[in-house]
Amino acid sequence: MTRPGNRRQSPLASAALLFVSVLVALFLIEGGYRLTADLPVFKFADWRASRVVRTEYKAIVDPVLGWTVRPWTDTDDFSSIDYGIRPNFNEKTVRTGGILAVGDSFTQGWEVDDDETWPSYLEKLTGVPVVNGGVGGYGTDQIILRAEQLLPVVRPKILIIGFLEADMFRTAHSVFGAPKPYFTLEDGRLRYHPPDLVDVREERGALMTLSYALRDGLGYSAAADYVMAGLAPNYWYGSGESITYQLAGNQEPEITCALLRRLKRQTVQAEIPMLLFMQHHAPLLFDTEHSTPVAQAVVACAEAADIRVVDQFDSLRAIALEDVNEIAQYYSGMFVGKIYGHLTAKGNEHAARLLHQALNDWLPVVTGSTAPGPSGATTQDPTAPADAARTGAAAQ
């Protein structure tokens, strides 16, 4: 007779015990990560899908820029006119002779209405037309190429380049959500590489199909999203049909600085004052005393090139440190408990006020009462701005 203490556990019971143990361990890891990352513990969400760069939304393929805004889009919260420009107040034509603003989604104004972007608030403050040429998902290289394309179209008297600190990281890629152009420095000269728009699709076998099904399920784990984003971003964020993220092998600060200097030479020739507006994601306001080292390097090289700089970091960090509930009104929150989104209408109005102060001595140039000198300083000799069409540069 077998004693109860010596009774062997059945394989099925052992497997069930192992399964339950693993499941409990995974739940503990997930809960611990969410607590550590200040994420809602009980929120059920597809964390992976929420972070995917969806460049196809409101966008079309562009052979020079990779993608651009689809002209004449009209939805409840977004519209565009010719050249994919986002109107501020229902204007139907591209206005010339005012201010041109280019940048990424922070400039374009994702998650707010047309009249709640910082270019629209800046127009209200200045009374000067501000043309919004921002495009979501752009790197600094695409932003500067976009400026060079729109300068001869808009013929502005002031140019604002909007950068987010993440834009420099995008510049290091030949594919970032979609194929994009990139630059290399060869013998000190910029070399343009056009986007590879060939759609290379992969054949999915049964194993590959299963792996992507597993990925879609794991996407509901915030911990898995964090780990896989670092280990295998192409697999984790890709469509499974083409490469979604691919490094170009260049140095993004050096490329960005070289492009800024190139654009500066063009604007000096056309007598168009140029300003760099540096913006930031909300988590950085709490995590660091200063902006990222890459952002600081780009600001330093811009100032060395005699480009006026407005940085939103210090003013927003002061608000964040004083009252976290107050700064939450400046950013839209993608996840409860942690701010990840774009600027709200209030945040964009704050940005516009900073820019208005910085542009105050330049604004008379729009009316022709004064004009900036070659260095960007305002002089008292009224001269008409040169034809901005001269600033249109080929991508190469």
Describe the model.
The chain has 396 residues and is of the alpha/beta class. Residues 53-57 and 370-396 have low confidence and may be disordered. Helix content is 41%, strand content 13%. It has three domains: 11-42; 59-197 and 248-391, Rossmann fold; 201-241, no CATH class. It is globular, with a radius of gyration of 25 Å. It has 16 helices and 13 strands. The protein has helices at 11-36, 47-50, 105-108, 118-126, 140-154, 165-171, 206-218, 222-231, 233-237, 252-269, 282-287, 293-304, 313-322, 324-327, 345-359, 364-367, and strands spanning 59-62, 66-69, 99-102, 130-132, 158-164, 173-176, 182-186, 189-193, 245-247, 274-279, 308-311, 371-372, 378-379.
The oligomeric state is: single chain
CATH superfamily of the largest domain: SGNH hydrolase
Rg to the nearest angstrom?
Answer: 25 Å
Count every beta strand, where a strand is a DSSP E run of 2 or more residues.
13
Secondary-structure element series: HHEEEHHEHEHEEEHHHEHEHHEHHHHEE
Report the total helices: 16
Helical content (DSSP H or I, runs of 4+):
40-55%
CATH topology-level fold name of the largest domain: Rossmann fold
Q: What's the CATH architecture name of the largest domain? A: 3-Layer(aba) Sandwich
Strand order, biggest sheet? Answer: 4-3-5-10-11
Count the domains: 3
Which descriptor suits the 3D outline? globular
- CATH class placement of the largest domain: Alpha Beta
Strand content: 5-15%
Q: Major sheet, described briefly? A: 5 strands, parallel
Indicate the structural class.
alpha/beta
N-to-C span: 88 Å
pLDDT < 50 stretches:
53-57, 370-396
